[in-house]
Every structure is written in structure tokens, then in C-alpha cells.
Amino acid sequence: MRIAERVRSVPESGIRKFFELAEERDDVISLGVGEPDFSAPWAARTAAIDSLERGRTSYTSNRGKRELREYIAADVARWGLEYSPDEEILVTTGASEAVDLALRAFVDPGDTVAVHEPSYISYVPGVRFAGGEPLGVPTYAADDFKLTVDSLQKSGAGDAEVLILCYPNNPTGAVMTERELSAVADFCVDNDITVIADEIYAALTYGREHVSIATLPGMRERTIVINGFSKAFAMTGLRLGYAMGPPEGIDAMNRVHQYTMLSAPTTAQFAAIEALRSCGDAVEEMRSAYNRRRRFVLSRFSEMGLDCFEARGAFYAFPEPGGDDEAFAEELLESQGVAVVPGSVFGEGGRGHLRVSYATGMRDLKEAMNRMETFLDDR
Amino acid sequence: MDAKRELLAVLSTDARESVTDLSRQLDLDPETVEELIDELEADGVIHGYQAVIDWDSINDSHVSAFVELNVELDRETGYEEIADRIVKFPTVQSLRLVSGDYDFAIEVTGESMQDVSRFISEQIAPIPEVTQTVTHFIMDTYKDGGMEFGDRDRDDRLSVSP
């Protein structure tokens, strides 16, 4: 079968290899998982079950149930984001669909899309599938993996049409302050760059509230904010996300969405309405648990003498054992049965690092840290 | 959340956390954690540490009952005085004053139903202020101390994912 060049040019994900290695044995403690270990709050699950029992299994409107869009609008107000449920919010099949829609709606063939690295593994392939040219913009451990204007300039991102921005960041756990984002915002305004802000981890910050770049001067009209229910509400498998932006941007994304997806999963929309209506406490409890695990892992790394900056978002730590990260991860898995993801999987800037997910119960986390310590001592 | 409240939140789900692990999770010195725990114990906030046990699963002779208790107060005797008498029995696991149709809710354990019935009829019912008791034997327990007794959820996530 003839495969399109667009697809052939994208290699298989480097994470795949580690998945297969980890699956081979049954004594593995995995710190390689990019999703919550909690289940969705029970109230949200029962709302989904209830909707099925009542036979609510048809499509919803293309943009998603209006009630859900209203709840989303009310929820994001806590970050100072104001969007009209009717014209400026689109409910999607996971935040992943929203990212894909945005790339297809805002990228013409040959357009340059700046992607800071290390970053989530789907952005670069997504840009290629949309016919764009990805431009890697490195972020550095010395800057706690925050995106700087210096790096944007040196990479030639001034000529880019689009920037994909993801903070709190997967894989580093980095967050950016308002002041740091302001510099990036000014750069985007000066160079007329559209921003796709993937804020899927916005609810999971520790110490200070998330700041959205869309709230900064000159940014609302050029930014699509993407979020969803997967991480905050532990609903990954229900596949529900949303995009928010100026009406013409959301219209364009909805044009693609209405022909390719029609509407996001109906059952998941019922769960999401209940999640936003009544599950705030459950989210807060999960956040506190993540924060304790975060502090535990960082404190253990420091005891082991493993370099790691203080990640303040998502559920990842990004230590730097030095040397070949892929070999380190492979040996750690082989000799101690602890799975982590080598940083280089997430782009050049991740080389020499490991993504350690602390979305794992405390008991396993303790054992995994002991095993890592043994591994480091034996080296 | 202040440190004390967070410490209580952790201990209420796992009282066996070591001081070292608590200090790592709460970002406090081990000495501070010890001091906080000492304070909470001295102030009567923490009264003890217990395991949550599913007695049915070890086939031991262990019977529990909830007892509703109605009392009549007079000028000399209030709820406190009655409670003081009842809490002294080791058979009584918990005693609460509640709103609604009856006054006290008691949890009682024994080795057999007979054991529990005898205790209620011989020790509780004769208390002069007690006007009525209703005993509910516990047939099965599905959740206790915040812990579900059913099969544990399996972690069915992919072992490595982006």
C-alpha cells in the first residue's frame, strides 16, 4: 500500500520501545505513565451511567452541549479567562483533537510552527500532518525549562506563523510566571504569531496559580487556549477536551471538527458537566496528593544526589542523571524494574534527563525511589 | 492547607507513615514533624492510631452492633453524665450523641450475638435514664474508616504512555 509522504516522514514514537520493554515483565513499577492513577470522581461516573440509562446516546451539537460550555466558561474564569459559551468555546474529543484542529485551521502548507522542546510528543507530528514545518525552540535546565525570548530569537522563531506553548509542561513539570510569559507574549505580538496554548495541566500547579498567556495584553485575539478533563478530573479514557478563542478562530476549528468528528462523545459530556458542577473537592484532594508525592520525589532525588530542578506543575519531575538518558532508562528498567521515560524522547532539549511521573500511589513511589537509589549506588 | 491540617490528612489515610517520609512529603524537617505530632497528641486532636480491619475475612468470632439509645434527662443528669458511664465499658467501641429519633448511637462488639445482647440487657438497659434500646446487628461491612472492603481496583493503565 502506498503511504503518504506526510505520514512516512513521521517516525514511530520513541516511547513505544519503552512501553514494550516494560510490558515484558510483571514486576515493574512504572513511573512512565502520563495519566492520573486516580479514577474519575464517582459523581462524574454516575452521571455518565445515568445518561446511558436514560438513552442519551445521540450526537450533541457540533460545539458540544450548551450546558457544558456554560460550565466551562464559568470554570476558566478563575484564571481570568472570559469566553462566550456560544461563540468562543468548542468541546472536542480530548485536548488532542483540539490541538490537531488548531494546527489544521491555522497552518498552511509550508508555514513554520515553533515548538519548544522538550515537549509533548504529539506536537511535531501534528504539525507535519497539517503540512507545516516544525521549528524546535530549546528550553534549558538552567532556565528551569521555561521558554525564553532569547531562545525564540536564536531559533529564528520570529518568522514562525504559529507557536505551540505548553505550560505547565509535559515532560518537565515546569510552569511559567506572568512576568516570564509577558516576554513571550510581547515577542508573539511583535512578530504576529498565533499561539496554540495547551493548558491541559492548568489545574495542577503547586505553590502558585496557573497564568494563561491569553490573559496578557494583545494575546486574546491571537491565542487558542486548549484544556480538558483528562488530567484534572482523571478522565483520560473519556476523551474530552475543549478549545477557547476568538469567534473566527473557533469557527475555523469547528469547520474541521463538524466534518471530521461531528461532536465530542456524548457520554463523556454528561460526565464532564457533573465534574464541573460538583467535583471541585475531588480535584483539590487529588492535587494535594500529587503535591505530597512531588515533594517526596524531589526530596528523595536530592538525598540520592540526583540533580533535579523544582518542578511546580503537572505530575512530572525531570531529573538529570547525566550521560545517555536512554541507556540509563533501559538499565534502570532491566536491573531494578523501574520504568521511566528518557527525556530525549521529548526532543533534543530533553537529552540527559528522565521524565519521572509521580501519578502513582505512595507505596509504589517509595519502593521505586528505593530501587532508583540502589541503582545509583551500584553504578 | 496549613502544615497541621495536611499532616492530619496524611495520617488519617495512612497512620503508619514514618516521620522521615512525612517530612519528605510535607517539605518539613523531621524534627518539626515530630513536634507537630506531639502537639496534636497532647492537645487531644490525635487520640490514637488503629488498623482498619475486615474481621469477616479472618473468620474470627467477632460480632458488632449499632445500638440506638433513648434517654430521659432530669435536673441532676445530663447527656454528659450518661455518656461518662457508658464509655467506660470496653465493649463500647464508639458513642455519639445524635440528632433525630433517638439520643445516642453506640457501636458495640462482642464474640457472639448472645454476648452483645447480654451486654445491652445487663449493662445498658438498666441505666436509670435509659428508656429504650434498639439493637442492629451488623451483617456485612462494605466500607470502614474510609476504606472499601471489596476487591482492590487493578491499575489497568498502559505501563508507559506519553
Basic shape of chain B: extended
Class derived from helix and strand content of chain B: alpha+beta
Strand content of chain B: 15-25%
Number of strands of chain B: 6
- Given the helix and strand composition of chain A, which structural class is it? alpha/beta
Describe the structure.
The complex is a heterodimer of chains A (379) and B (162). Chain A has 379 residues and is an alpha/beta fold. Chain A has two domains: 5-40 and 281-378, Aspartate Aminotransferase, domain 1 (Alpha-Beta Complex), CATH 3.90.1150; 56-278, Type I PLP-dependent aspartate aminotransferase-like (Major domain) (Aspartate Aminotransferase, domain 2). Chain A contains 13 helices and twelve strands. Chain A has helices spanning 5-8, 15-23, 42-53, 66-76, 94-106, 123-129, 149-154, 178-190, 247-260, 266-278, 280-304, 325-336, 362-378, and strands at residues 29-30, 89-92, 112-117, 133-138, 162-165, 194-198, 223-228, 241-244, 316-317, 338-339, 341-342, 354-357. In chain A, helix 6 links the parallel strand 3 (112-117) and strand 4 (133-138). In chain A, helix 5 crosses helix 6 (123-129). The longest helix of chain A is centred in the C-terminal third of the chain and has 25 residues, at 280-304. Chain A is globular and about 60 Å long. Chain B folds into two domains: 3-42, Arc Repressor Mutant, subunit A, CATH 1.10.10; 55-144, 2-Layer Sandwich (Alpha-Beta Plaits), CATH 3.30.70. Chain B is built from five helices and six strands; from the N terminus they run H-H-H-E-H-E-E-H-E-E-E. A four-stranded antiparallel beta sheet of chain B has the order 2-3-1-4. In chain B, strand 2 (92-97) and strand 3 form a beta hairpin. The longest helix of chain B is centred in the N-terminal third of the chain and has 13 residues, at 30-42. The radius of gyration of chain B is 21 Å and the shape is extended. Classes of the chains: A alpha/beta (379), B alpha+beta (162). The A-B interface holds A 13, 15, 18-19, 22-23, 28, 30, 32-35, 37, 39, 120-122, 170, 288, 292-293, 295-296, 299-300, 339, 341, 362, 366 and B 1, 6, 9-10, 14, 21, 23-27, 153, 155, 157-162.
